[in-house]
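Standup notes
- DV: blocked on the single-chain target, sequence here:
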Amino acid sequence: MAKYRALVGLMYPTPASLKIVLKAGGISKLSEAQREKVTLKNVKAGALCEDIPEKSIKSLVAQGSIEEVTPTAKKTKRR
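- DV (later): unblocked, structure below
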């Protein structure tokens, strides 16, 4: 699974809360009772954000809000 780094500050629902948000039709449409059940995650620019909702990744990359981070390969010793 790919890892991503935030290039800007982000706020998004945790995976468990995403179901509630999607059922309501978006964060702005949450009822007061639903808002109490939703947990939002705040990520600062430069931080890893490994639990970004899958539905959001493509658009966030296109906007320049996140970038994919690949681990560096370990160097092998030469003999």
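- Follow-up: Helices lie at 15-24, 32-37, 54-63.
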